[in-house]
Design a protein that fits this description.
Length: 313
């Protein structure tokens, strides 16, 4: 699949059955790949690999799984090797550049009704994955417009026009992945499924939704020299760092990763301009909220990579 293409629809074929392929999850992964999607194996239970949580990507140098969602592949031979190694692995479906997935999580207050209220209208009918948790959680697949010059898709919580986060509603875009049917939910053992048992070509998202999930181009900074650390008020710098740590420490469940990502981005900006930072303090604040070390380190690394400069170790 070329980067500017939308993957073809997925439909179960008559020849797909357990007689030709005894592992229905592998069979589905191969069908996704044949339709142009990139897939990767994800942990089917907590702690299966080095303390990682369920749904995190498997890691293996030997099997070319070293960069999370970036390791996703459409190579059928590699996919067969993955599911030979981990037969019960969940299917992670890498989100292509021109797709946006809206993740509704009722555990954190997310509902379709709340999202529709935020955009002031009904959502366009789209392919929907229903979570195997059985609580009404779902993933909505939409197509991003082909031409959004300079716009960057949001990744994380959906932010309303008034600046508040919409509880329990996240957006996943290129660089992320979603668990795909017929993977079995780690807690319930029930399968994820496509609503209506089919995946059709995603429609463009409603314009009102696009306003919430697309960042407009940033204004270009004026030419100037990099400010040295000596140019900052140390008291003001310390107060800023304290504020970042407090934001992370006070984050509610369901917002912790997003709060950490935001704080790490701000701290990386400080780092590049020579202002005060406290990476160890940020890490400890995040761990104290209940996030795992793997989640914390990966979120901080992603934030530092997003802003630029050197990355977290």
């Amino acid at each position: 699949m070329r980067l500017n293409e939308t993957p073809r629809p997925y439909r179960k074929q008559p020849g797909e059955n357990e007689l030709t392929n005894p592992n229905p999850i592998l069979s589905a992964a191969l069908r996704y790949a044949a339709c142009g999607w990139q897939v990767l194996p994800c942990l089917e239970q907590d702690g299966k690999q080095a303390g990682k949580p369920a749904k995190a990507p498997y890691y293996s140098r030997a099997l070319e799984l070293t960069h999370g969602a970036k390791s996703a592949s459409g190579n059928p031979e590699l996919i067969r090797q993955w599911w030979k190694e981990w037969p019960r692995a969940l299917i992670g479906l890498a989100v292509p550049p021109h797709i946006a997935v809206i993740d509704i999580d009722p555990r954190n207050g997310g509902t379709l009704e709340a999202l529709e209220a935020a955009i002031g209208g009904k959502l366009t009918r789209c392919p929907i994955v229903v979570s195997g948790r059985g609580d009404g959680g779902c993933h909505l697949y939409y197509q991003r417009p082909a031409r959004l010059e300079g716009f960057t898709p949001l990744f994380g919580q959906v932010i309303c026009d008034d600046g508040t986060a919409l509880p329990g509603v996240d957006v996943k875009t290129h660089g992320g992945f979603c668990v795909a049917p017929p993977s079995l939910h780690p807690e319930t053992g029930k399968p994820y499924r496509w609503e209506g048992n089919e995946f059709f070509t995603p429609p463009p998202y409603p314009q009102a939704l696009g306003k919430l999930i697309e960042r407009p181009p940033r204004p270009q900074p004026l030419p100037g020299k990099r400010v040295s650390r000596a140019g900052f008020n140390p008291i003001a710098g310390a107060n800023m760092v304290s504020g970042l740590l407090a934001t992370v420490a006070q984050a509610r469940q369901g917002t912790r990763n997003n709060a950490l990502f935001w704080a790490a981005c701000r701290m990386q900006q400080n780092d590049l301009t020579g202002a005060a930072t406290d990476w160890q303090g940020l890490r400890q604040a995040a761990l104290a909220t209940g996030l795992t070390a793997w989640e914390v380190d990966n979120t901080i690394h992603s934030a530092r990579r997003r802003i630029g400069g050197h990355h977290a170790a």
